[in-house]
Amino acid sequence: MALDSKIPEGPLAEKWKKYRSTVPLVNPANKRNLEIIVVGSGLAGASAAASLAEMGYKVKVFCYQDSARRAHSIAAQGGINAAKNYQNDGDSVYRLFYDTIKGGDYRAREGNVHRLSEVSGNIIDQCVASGVPFAREYGGLLSNRSFGGTQVQRTFYAAGQTGQQLLLGAYSGLQRQVGMGSVKMYTRHEMLDVVIIDDKARGIIARDMVTGKLERHFGHAVLLCTGGYGNVFFLSTNAMGCNVTAAWKAHKKGAFFGNPCYTQIHPTCIPVSGDHQSKLTLMSESLRNDGRIWVPKKQEDAEALRTRKKGPNDIAEDDRDYYLERRYPAFGNLVPRDVASRAAKERCDAGFGVNNTGQAVYLDYAAAIDRYGKIEATKQGIDASAAKIVELGKAVVKEKYGNLFDMYEQITGVNPYDEPMQIYPAVHYTMGGVWVDYNLMTTVPGMYALGEANFSDHGANRLGASALMQGLADGYFVIPYTIGAYLSNEIRTKAISTDHPAFVEAENNVKAQIDTLLNIKGTKTVDYFHKKLGKIMWDKCGMARNAAGLAEAISEIQALKAEFWKNVRVPGSADELNPELEKAGRVADFLELGELMCKDALNRNESCGGHFREEYQTEEGEAMRDDENFAYVSAWEYKAESNWELHKEELKYENIKIAQRSYK
Amino acid sequence: MSSSSSFFTSSLGRKFVMGITGIFLITFLIVHVGVNAMVFLDSSGELFNTAAHFMGTNWLIRSMEFVLFAGIILHIVQSVVLTRANKAARPEGYAVSGSNVNSKWYSRSMGLLGTLILMFLIIHLCHFWVEARFGIWGGIPEGTVAGTHDMFAQMKIIFSNPIIVAVYVLAMISLSYHLMHGFQSAFQSLGLNHYKYTPAIKAIGIWYSIIVPVLFALMPLYVHFVINK
Amino acid sequence: MSEGNMNLTLKVWRQKNQKQKGELVTYPVSNVSPDMSFLEMFDVLNEDLVEKGQEPIAFDHDCREGICGMCSMFINGRPHGPKEGITTCQLHMRSFKDGDTVVVEPWRATAFPVIKDLVVDRSAFDRIIAAGGFISVNTGNAQDANALPIAKEDADKSFEAAACIGCGACVATCKNASAMLFVSAKVSQLALLPQGQPERYSRVQNMVEQMDKEGFGNCTNTGACEVECPKGISLENIARMNRDYLVAKAAH
Q1: Which residue in A115, A368, A603, C242 could disulfide with A16, CB within 3.0 to 4.6 Å?
Q2: Right CATH number for B8-89+107-227 from 3.30.1130.10, 1.20.1300.10, 1.10.940.10, 1.10.10.10?
Q3: Rounded average pLDDT per 10-residue block, chain A, 664 residues
Q4: pTM, to two decimals
Q5: Domains and their CATH numbers in chain A
Q6: How far is B215 from chain C (nearest CA, A)?
Q7: Nearest residue on chain C to A355, alpha-carbon basis
Q8: Pairing verdict, β C78-79 and C74-75
C-alpha cells in the first residue's frame, strides 16, 4: 500500500486556504444523520467534539476519567504558541512555521506545519471568546512570554496552568453541547477495539469501567484523540491512566504507526526518589531562564554528595561544572529540551550525578538570587549587606517562581531557596503516533487521529508550548473541515446495526482478552511487568540508544511479554470496577508498542531530535542527522505478532533549506 | 434560557431570606437593647417604663411587631427547611471529622444555638409580651398612670428567681455565638462581600455579638443582684 | 532502594459497589518512606494486597501532580489530608509520624454516591457545567483576541476562580455537602469577563437550578470549603454568585 499524505498542491501559503475552500461540504440536513465517535476528551477531543456538534453532527465522546475535564492536557504548564505578533517583535506565520520545522529537526511535513502555524492565531481568538483567562498586561491586552529558547515572544499563558485553562475552555464548550443533547458523553468508558466494516472504521467496542459491561457503538467516523504513549516507560510525566490502547487497537486493525521512536525527554523534572515512585513531576521549563545547571567537577565530590557527606553548598565555585554553559556558550542553560536532557545524562553516566541514585544534577538559583538581590538593592537605593542582598533576591525569585519552588519543597522536603534543586530528565511527550494524512485520517478510511495521538506536526522534537497549539488546531480548525472530504461520501450510509457480525466479533475478541487476563492467575502484579518494561525502555530506548542495546531490548521485551501472558495476576472480576484489569489491558499493549519503538529506533540509523543514536554523533557529542537516507516518516504496518512492515513517506522540503541545528 | 424556578424555593433564595431576616432581627436587637439600657440610667424604672410604654402603644412600633414576628417565623421556618435539606445531602456521615481545623464550632452549630434561642424566646415572651397583651398568668402590675403597665415591676418579679436569671444569661451566651457567625454570614448570603468592606463588617459583627448580648445579660443580673436587694 | 521505616495503621473504607454496605477495614503498612506520596503508599499497599490474593483498594487518581482533580480521599477527617493547598497526590508521607493511625474515607454526599471503596461519582459537577458553565460561542465565531481589553485585575480574579480543579473537596468538607464554592467559581470566572456578560444572568440561574436538583446541601458560610480547597478558591465567589442570582431573579 502506497502512502498518500494528500498534501494539496500549490504554494505553501496557499495550500490550506485553497483546500479549505474546496473541500466537499455536507449539508445540514445530512449532518444530523451522521454520527461521529470521539475517543478522548483532552484538548483535541473536546475541541473536535464541540466543534463537530455545533456543525450539526451527532457526536459521542468517550473518556476513561470520571469527567472530560480531567484529561491530561490539563497538566500542561507553560503556554501555547501563536503567531499573533502582538509584541511587534517580527513574528509571523512563516517564522512560527520555520521554528517548528527546525525545532523538529527537519522531520515534519511542511504542509501540515504551515497549516498549524496559520490557524494558531484563531486558536487564541477562540479561547479568549470562550472565557479562557489568559494573563494580561495592565493595559488590558494579552501578555506574552518567550518560551523554549525562541527569539520572539509568542507564547500565551495563564500563570503555570495554561493547559488547565485551555482544557476547561474546551470542556465547557463540550458540556454546552452535552446540555443541548448534541453530544452524548460516556465517562469512565475505555475504548477496547475499533470495528471495521468493508475496510472502513464504523464503530468501537467500549467497556463501561463501572459495571464492566462491554458496549458496541456505531459511528460513520471514529476520531482517536487519545494522547501519547509516554507511559510505556512506566515513569513519565504523563498521568497514571495515559495509555496507548485505543491507538494500538487501531494500529492492529490497519492504522499505520508513525515514527514511534520519537520521544521527548524533558530536562527539568524532579528525580526519582525510590522504588515506590509512580510518576515524575515536571518543573516548568521557565526555571531554566534563571537557574544554572551544574554537577561537581571532581568524582570524589560527586561521591560525597551521593552519600550525603557533603551538601551542594560545600562544593566550591571552582569545583563546579556548569556543563551547559561550557558546551553551548551561545544558548547556555537555554538549549532545547533534547540537548539539555542528553547533556544531563552524559554527566550522570560519567559518574557525576549528585543524588543517591546518581541520576540527578543541580539547578541552582544562588546566582540569580544574588543578581536580583543586587538589582533590588540598587532600586531601593540601599547599601545592602550580603545577607540583605540574599534576602531581597529570594523575594524576587519567590515572586517569579514561588509556586514552583513550593511544589518542589512539597515533593522533596528540601527548601530550594537555600539548596539547589535536583533535577533529572524524564519522559514527557511522544512525537510519534498514529500516521495520518493531511486530513488527519489514518490509513483506515473513516478513522482519524488528532493531537498527541497522531504523529504529524512536531517531527523528531516538539518545541515548548506547541502541544497545546496542535491539539486545539486539530480539533477546532482542521478536523471540522477535513472530515467533510470523507463524510460527504457517507451521506447514503445508514446507521449500521450493532448486531452486525463485525461488532459481534470485535466484542467477542475483547471479551476473550479480558477473560484470558483474569484467568492467568499468575504470581506477578501488572505493575511488576510495567516497571520491568519501563526499565528496559528507559535504559535501551530512552535518551540515548544504540544498535546492540535496541536488539537486546527487543528480545527482552518479547520475553517479558511471554512471561506476562503466562504469569500476570489480575484480581477481581470483569463485571465490576477493576483498576487492575484496566491496567493489565494497557500494559499488554505497551508491551507490543515497546517492541515497535525499539524496532523503529533500530531502523533509524541517524540521530535527530528526540532520537539519539550513540553511533551517530559528532566528535563533540552532538546529534548527527542523515538527510540523505532518513528524511522520511517511518510508517509501520502491523502484520502479525512482532511482525511489521515499514512504509516510508518521503519528506520534501520545498520552502526550507535543511541545515544542521546548532546551539553552540 | 431563563429558568422559571421560584427564587424563594431555591437554595440561594432561602439563604437570602435567612440573611435578610437575620439582619432585620439584628436591627431589632439594637432597639430592644436600647430600651433595656434605660434601666441602667434610671434605677427607679421610670425611664424604662416610659420607653416600654412608648414601644407598646406607638402605632408604628405596634405594626412593626407583626413584621417582627413574621421575620422570626420566616427565619425559623427557612432554617428548618434548610437544615432538613442539609441533612439529606449527607445521610451517611464520616467516621472521623476534622472540621475543628477548618471552621468555628459555632458556625457549624447555628441550628442548635438557634433552637436554644427559640426556647428562650418562648419563655421570654411568656414573661413579658404574653402577659402584657393577654395577662394569662395574672397580667402585669399597673403603672403609676392608669391603663399602663409597670414593666419594671414585672421585671423585678421575674428576675427575683435566680434560675430564671441563669436561663437568661445562658441564652445570651447562645445569642452571642449565634450572632458571632450570623452577623457576617448574613452579609455574605446577601452577596455583600468586598475586600475593602468585609473586614470592617466582620469586626463590627464581633463587637456587636459581644456587646449586645452582654448588655442584655447584665439586665437580669442587675435587677436580681442590685435593684432587688 | 530508599524505602523508609515508618509504620502506620490504615483504616480504609471498603465498599464493593454502590448497592452494598461498606465498612472501615484496618491495614497495617510498614516500611513507608517519608518521600512517598500518599497515593504511592496506597500503590505499595495494593501491590501487597494483590500478591496476597486480596482485592486491592479502588481509588481515583490520574495526573498525580495536583491539577486533574481526580484524586479524592477524606483523610483523618479532612479532604486531601492534613495539609492545606494541596491534593492527596501532593500529600507526602513526611506529613505523618511513625505509628500514626490514618482513617481514609470516600467523599460523602448524596450527590456523590460511592461507586466502590474510595471512588465516588462526581458527574453532578459535569451536569452543572452543562447547565450553563460556558460561553455560547461556536468555533469560528471569535473576533480578534485583543479586540476587547480586560482590566488586569478582573482577568486575574477570573483566573483565580478558574483555577478550580473540580475535585469536590468543598462538598466533601462542607457540613451540608454544599457545592456552592464549585458552582460560584465557574459563575465568577465568567461573570468577571466581558465575554461572559451576555449570558451572565441566565447562567447563574441555570447553574443554581441544576445544583439544587443534584441534591447538594445549602451554604451556611462556615468557610470550611475555602480552607480545604486545594486551589484556594475564595468565598468572595460565593458572595458574587449570591449577588448575581439576586439580580437575575429580580430583573431578568
Answers
A1: A115
A2: 1.20.1300.10
A3: 90 97 95 97 98 98 98 94 96 96 94 98 98 96 85 91 97 98 98 98 98 98 98 97 98 98 95 91 87 95 93 94 93 86 93 93 95 93 91 90 87 93 96 98 98 96 94 98 97 96 98 98 97 97 96 98 98 96 98 98 96 94 93 98 97 90 74
A4: 0.96
A5: 267-427 (3.90.700.10), 500-626 (1.20.58.100)
A6: 27
A7: C2
A8: antiparallel
